[in-house]
Design brief:
Layout (H helix, E strand, L loop, with lengths): L5 H44 L9 E6 L3 E6 L2 E12 L11 H5 L6 E10 H5 L8 E8 L5 E5 L2 H5 L10 H16 L16 H10 L20
Antiparallel strand pairs: 1-2, 2-3, 3-4, 4-5, 5-6
Helix pairs in contact: 1-5
Length: about 230
């Protein structure tokens, strides 16, 4: 059989990869819209039930453009952000050991929705040096199946790629798990010896716009966190 020309190979590759990635992108974009609706629905439900004894504690939902949704729950702001590119995995990744991928390697191409946890005050006071934490990544493929890599329950509740379909019910469950993790993830102070010195410039800046870097772990890892990853 005559070997294909370079142009034929290019055409075949575009037909295989480009079309596939467009399909995955459309699935991911639609899934992000479903997630946005789920976040909004949970926000409205919590807002109705929420008895506000303290005016400083409140809920807020905001959609920032086409690819970002924020849910503020008191001191926590959860950010869901869709990446616009499509990714494959290293061949050593566990998904390549599953029959689901072996049957159709194209199923390994995924879009990503990243989930971050920030302190609400970081946005309120424009503390641009504050840290947010990536707590989960939702991977969605051409079949609209998904799995989650993440912290605690996020890492084992949603790891059945072959069975998990990204629909209204599964979206609600994922969002609830994210909220439970973030609200239970408390702010810890760093060791005293690590914060005893501060520059005059840092203090001046802090007094103006509170730019001293802050995060839920403030840049430090504690031995008790070993069971969190």
């Amino acid at each position: 059989m005559e070997e294909k020309s370079s142009r034929e190979k290019i055409h075949a590759l575009i037909e295989e990869k480009a079309f596939l990635k467009q399909k995955v992108y459309r699935n991911t974009h639609h899934s992000f819209s479903t997630l946005n609706d789920g976040v909004k629905e949970i926000y409205h439900e919590l807002h109705k039930k929420f008895h506000q004894p303290d005016k400083g504690v409140f809920l807020e939902y905001k959609k920032h453009g086409e690819f970002e949704v924020r849910l503020k729950i008191a001191g926590d702001t959860i950010v869901f952000m869709m990446h616009t590119n499509i990714f494959d995995f290293e061949k050593s990744h566990p998904i390549y050991k599953t029959s689901y991928i072996s049957e159709d390697p194209h199923r390994a191409y995924c879009g990503i929705i990243n989930v971050y946890n920030f302190l609400s005050d970081s946005f309120k006071y424009n503390r641009v040096n504050d840290l947010g934490y990536l707590i989960g990544r939702i991977f969605i493929n051409k079949d609209n199946h998904f799995f989650v890599e993440g912290k605690r329950q996020l890492s084992f509740l949603y790891n059945d790629f072959a069975a998990n379909e990204f629909n209204k019910e599964s979206v609600a469950a994922v969002i609830e798990s994210v909220i439970l993790y973030c609200v239970g993830f408390d702010l810890l102070t760093p060791p005293f010896t690590e914060v005893t010195e501060v520059r005059v410039s840092e203090m001046e800046e802090a007094s103006q716009n509170m730019k001293v870097s802050t995060g839920k772990r403030l840049g430090f890892k504690f031995s008790s966190e070993d069971d969190i990853t």
